[in-house]
Fold each of these.
Amino acid sequence: MSVIDKGLAGVIVGETAISTVGKAGAGLTYRGYSIEDLARDATFEEVAYLLVYGKLPNVSELNAYQERLARLRVLPPSVCQMLESLPMSTHPMDVLRTGASMLGSLEPEGDEGRGAAYVADRLMASMTSMLGYWHRFAHRKQRVDTQTDEVGLAAHFLRLITDAEPREAARKTLDTILVLYAEHEYNASTFTARVVTSTLADTYSAVVAAIGALRGPLHGGANEAAMDLISSFETPQEAEKSIHHMLDARRLIMGFGHRVYKNGDPRSDIVKELARGLALESGNNAYFDISVRIEEVMMREKGLHPNLDFFSATAYHLCGVPTVMFTPLFAVSRTAGWVAHVIEQRDDNRLIRPNADYNGPQARELVKLHDR
Ligand SMILES: CC(C)(COP(=O)(O)OP(=O)(O)OC[C@H]1O[C@@H](n2cnc3c(N)ncnc32)[C@H](O)[C@@H]1OP(=O)(O)O)[C@@H](O)C(=O)NCCC(=O)NCCS
């Protein structure tokens, strides 16, 4: 009798030099650097460079990289036309999945010397623009110039979405959230990207498939579901009462629990402080207080810690980011991690193809169509 590892929990299916997740003594690291140090001292562009190119950039490398990403923000006219044809009700994750796929046919990997790193940079920069372009066209019928003067993808995104100078606190918070989301070992979407890559498919296909895997509420979609929950309450007391009812009904509270971090997600402490800072700065602490109360109830009743998606929902909201953009921003940031894994998978590839135990009908005779 073979042993079935449903959900592959705890099963080691490969090696990686990109990140450690919850390893004793190491915590979360990207290429050996702790997430606490990176969140405090590095921008998202430095982290993206670290993941995709394998080392932290020096000043001149970072300047050149920022200029490159700024050039790659500009969308081809046909992509703008496609974005204009999408319904207003489209979820922006579908906008990204469609836009990334279209770029893959306009600028295929392999043509004109484009490799996986080009695809990573092009997708991170242009997916940020796609979100802004689609949002402004769908909601205000405006055709925005996707080449802003903002340095950094966080500021570029905020400028496009809000059509205003980004507040420094919001820009800094969003940049740090992008750092926190950039990489996380063999999570569902990254594993998806590695499976696609193992068939020798191109990087765009791996990223498009990963976007699909990220969309669900058990993975990236949890931050939007967490915001819907938090914003459904007026007071911490109301939240407490309702969470008790939900737990009694055995409902999942999105943004809590984690497959690997059973004693707390190190990213959650960082993003919680960012959310606290924004709440203080804005004088708007209603959602932060509600979030803290939900955290207390979940710990008391279930012993469950928040994961990154819970307090990042509150922080995003206080940055002025619309809820439907939470998971798409996760996708923009995680593209750096996904492509780092594409490159690593290619370096030592073997087709990923597990087996299943069959539990269907016994062998039986086929009755021809007209005799059934
Ligand atoms: C992330 C997640 C899928 C991990 O799942 P997992 O490792 O398979 O853990 P399990 O589903 O086995 O959970 C163990 C127990 O805790 C409960 N639990 C886990 N997360 C819970 C949550 N968010 N709310 C309520 N109960 C939860 C499960 O119901 C289960 O209870 P049981 O033993 O009585 O059946 C799970 O915690 C979850 O669904 N969380 C909500 C979605 C989320 O925030 N996703 C983002 C992840 S970064």
Amino acid sequence: MSYDVVIVGGGPAGLSAALALGRARKRVLLCDSGTRRNAAAERIHNFVTRDGTPPDEFRAIGRQQLATYPRVEVRDLRIESIVGTRGAFQVTSATGTVGALRVLLCTGMIDEPLAIEGFRELWGRSIFQCPYCHGWEVQDRRWGYLARGVQSLHFPLQLRGWTRDVVVLTNGSFDVPEDMRARFSAAGIEVETRPVARLAAREDRLQSIELADGATIACEVLFAHPPQRQVDLVRKLGVALDDDGYVQVDPVSRETSVPGIYAGGDLLSRMQAAVVAAASGVHAAGMLNHELTVELATGG
Ligand SMILES: Cc1cc2nc3c(=O)[nH]c(=O)nc-3n(C[C@H](O)[C@H](O)[C@H](O)COP(=O)(O)OP(=O)(O)OC[C@H]3O[C@@H](n4cnc5c(N)ncnc54)[C@H](O)[C@@H]3O)c2cc1C
């Protein structure tokens, strides 16, 4: 079997790309292995027309709308390898190998949970990465921000837009420069530099943060940006990554360093939100389709 485009990843980026390519009458295979980034989240917010939609429902609607386009196939499959060159890729899963003229990577990112007791369990429930996504529902409560270095200290200042009660935690890992302390003080933000021992919860919701010296800080909501990594497939492909580990693409064409392989969505940058990923998927699909259509129409 051979396709014009194989899309790897069926989140907001891959679904949107498949919609654009289906409407452009390309023969598309969309493969998704099921482990999505927002698996722990109860609802998607800040996506116009879909605000408050559970993530599974979001994906189901996406697939339902793709069913209108007979040249788009959707399969629940993990892609194990991609070999070949532009115009002649072989894409392999557990069920076999298919051919593709182009490949579009929409594989998202993997969040690596921080090694703090309670972090993994509370991620997506009381621990969030983005206040636009989850801040409204918990506004005016006591929020913490788990900072991982001086470079992340600009972030907690914006949290004041949702609550007056913010504490920045350094987890004992770095010193807060005096100028930042002064800005936090002016904004009424507390700074806690002692190491964190564990996150205490009741009924799956954060109640307090226990420090290594036995002290306890009341806190209902924590924001954090744990490290991220690319999925194994992307690492094996050898596409160029930037210094932060995100896939480098041409800013206009969205082609990676491997000719014929394009990328869209979270895997491109830390600017991560479902609607941003959807737009990124459409951008890559549009540019890929333009290039492929011209090639097929002109024979070269
Ligand atoms: C806890 C949490 C809550 C969030 N809440 C919100 C929110 O409320 N609003 C918002 O706008 N954003 C939210 N986000 C961010 C949002 O989820 C992401 O920006 C968005 O999902 C990125 O879309 P994507 O398509 O790039 O990647 P993903 O949604 O992560 O999809 C990537 C897909 O690729 C698949 N895949 C990976 N490797 C392979 C392979 N080898 N073969 C086949 N398939 C593969 C995965 O299974 C996955 O389904 C949240 C994120 C987190 C972590």
Amino acid sequence: MKWKNRRRSSNVDDRRAQRMKSGAKFSIGGIIMALIAIFVFKQDPMQVVTGMVGGQSSSTITEQTNYEPSAEEQEVYDFVSVVLADTEDTWANFFKQSNQRYPQPTLVVYRDMTPTACGTGQAASGPFYCPADQKIYLDLSFLGELKRMGASGDFAVAYVLAHEVGHHIQTIYGISDKVRSAQRQTNKAGQNALQVKMELQADCLAGVWTNRTQQRTQFLETGDLEEALSAAEAVGDDTIMKRAGMPPRREAFTHGSAQERMYWFNQGANSGNANACNTFQGTI
Ligand SMILES: [Zn+2]
């Protein structure tokens, strides 16, 4: 992706120098259980995070440290700031077409743990979007994890961020609320099926963003789309279950199979049309 010397978003909240001092207390056992829940059973990280801090005070104390990022990490930080700016410009154009203003989300870059309106954010959860504060939480160490999962290249990172912005778009349009109320009326398998549709739509919206940003800025380089697709494949539920040595079980999927994630990213990327992202097809 061509990104050097391009606009950086001013909506990045740099919390890398902050350390959470106290507040929610976690046992090592609890954190391991959460990791298993997230990576093996692919539960929604937010549910796990919220579950872990359930009932505890949300007031957390953070302290400032003298944190010096490495040159490599700073480059990733600068890169995500440019990607966020590209999501702002592209989605602002999209909203303008219907005479609406795009409410920009904040990107919080943190290390290890940070307080969020959805409970304590944990690096182990991977990147997530919290609808209650309309912020995306990203621990840069996840990007190393993504590489180990077989997704490398800068556009793999852009895809991940654009997917989280997709959840922000779903929140603004009230889709997330509709999904949550539909989930309350069904069983676990039904809830997971709705969650999958939600995730696939966010993948499709990441594709729409890619298409429209390309039209606007010609930012793609050779191999970028393949990087996004390989990231979509690496984070497919079946890929993750197989990697964990488990047979893939569709009823336990919460994000969609590798094939579905690639399919829906492509739907958006080929059409550039958000109407092509109708993963729900009348189910909500
Ligand atoms: Zn998601």
Amino acid sequence: MSTSGGLKRDKAAFVDLSGWIEALRKAGELQAIDAEVDWDVELGTIIRMAQGKGDGPALLFNNIKDYNRNDTICRQLFTGGQGSYSRLAMMFGLPRETPPRELVKICRTIFQERVAPRVVKTGPVKQNVLKGDDIDLLKFPVPKWNRGDGGRYVLTYAGCVTKDPETDVHNVGIYRGEVAGRDRIPVLMWRAQHWGGHFAKWQAQGKDMPVAYVIGWEPSMGFTGGAPVPRGVSEYDVMGAIRGEPVDLVKCETVDLYVPANAEIVIEGYISGDPASFTPEGPYAEFTGYYAVERTRKPTTRVTCITYRDNPIFRGTVEGALPGSYSENPIMSSVQRSATAWNALESAGVPGITDVWGPPIHAGVNLFVRMNQTYRGQAKQAAMALWGNSAAHVRYKHVWVVDDDIDIHDYAAVDWAFAWRVNAGEGDVLIYPANFGAGLDPSTRRRDRDPLRFGTGKWARVLIDATINLDYEPDPDLDGKRYPPTVAPTEADQAAVRARWAEFGFKK
Ligand SMILES: Cc1cc2nc3c(=O)[nH]c(=O)nc-3n(C[C@H](O)[C@H](O)[C@H](O)COP(=O)(O)O)c2cc1C
């Protein structure tokens, strides 16, 4: 038992993916599928139909077509481990019923804690080593997740490990990558993402960038890998903080990088900046809920080694939320993107913030901020602090700021404030054009979605200031307030009616 941010947490170290799966099984959070499932579209379709609005189970596929023979080295695939708030609570060592609002708060605290990893000599991930001609990515059950994908995507939930060549600080991010031959993985890389920053530095030194893709470990890896952990901070330190225990790392075989010793599968390799080495990648069903339809030549991983434990479990996920069907990234993002935004506001010195929430349906692309506004322009200060933070690269496109009487976990409350406290003619809507942003956003013109040319997308960011406008004169007819009272009866009037409630024939 440990304490973070005033909340008591149970041990949250599960050792490996099997330990996490076992914890989910015991909690009734897992559905094992023993019927044969085709890796070709059927598996991904099952996930999208089972995940619901974050209320579906985690899934363990035990019988995958073409990977259910006796000589198959990898027979199982796990997904959805972080597709619900109850499972995120488990990852933090909290009771499963902990509400999202509390998860954001605990996440804020943990993101500011660090537990450094420790290096160990070896671990289960070294039980098997494939090199040279033995390397073949399709020895593992890599699905074609969606009908419209350009191919089979091996990197959908892998922790992509790179390091800054100047500081050796390791970054772990989740980035997509497609199988383009037995030892080639083209990837989508934006220069504004942290591994894109590393890549630029390796290129400047005239060297290929070493990479290690970690497929399958504890939930803290996907959670931090998909989160905008500040540049220069290693996700391994934050994983340690989530677990309350250091991450055990082993050195890779063919690249100078470190990976979790208890991982399922690690793919090692190099990415060259030479355009002649680029290979076609895409389309892919993206986090926006739309396909990114471009198939273009992209930086490509040349795989030098694959290590894996005995009977490894493949880990992957589908991307994209649609009304009624949320995948893991949007559920996770609603917590980590809100927590990161709140921390960014605090470190920028914006006062009075009482809650931050980016709903899962768009993975925190729209962000609601609740504040006690005490001076004119405070909402604009909040928006500018957010947009200047590197975490805003693929999020916080539209920022809503509301007063402290509005519950931002209640869409209707936010919409009510939008309707009655926003006057675009009075400066409540601010547009900040031609910004950096998510290049995958289909509302962005196609020419502006080129990662190689621009390194980012092109967003106009919008602030909806739905706070009561402090630029208005206090009104003497309203006791010096700027807004009239709402129609809600007074507390005293309500108490009097409540006392006679049953008398009026109401049941409760
Ligand atoms: C399942 C999943 C898939 C993702 N795919 C990509 C991707 O293909 N490319 C990308 O730039 N970001 C992708 N992201 C978002 C990044 O992981 C996220 O922006 C993270 O902050 C990147 O790490 P970094 O901040 O260290 O660059 C994905 C996130 C998740 C959870």
